[in-house]
Amino acid sequence: MQRLSSNSTLMLKFFIPVFWIVFFGALTIAALAYQYEYVGNTPSIYFKGGMAFAYVTGVLLFAFTLLRLKRVEADEAFLYVTNYFKTARYPFHAIKEIRQSSFLFLSIARIQFVEKGIFGQSCFFVASRKLMQEYLEQHPDVQEKVAA
Asked: What does pTM read for this prediction?
């Protein structure tokens, strides 16, 4: 079995969101508990509202981006997709396409399934460019499912 996702998946999926939620959440709670009327020259109600808005926006951003990432591995016949708690095995005939795109320095891949599976109709992962290229060179039959 060969890993196709990047090593940074674990950090992007768990460490960054957990640190944001815990530390910025604690800072937001401290700001909401602040008793004075002004923070610097700003009325505290605006400061508290801004902190709460920034926290909720960050949590929603993580929920719709980083927390959706999966780890992907493959062998000759199957693609294995895991969220680190559950693992699903998909045969290649159940995969409609794999589409890769670049975002900043990351290669984001989207797997589109023929039918809805345990992780839905599609899933996202941070692809390792080197590992994906090696796998596709070794398995040219899978190459037709990959759209760059």
From this structure: 0.83
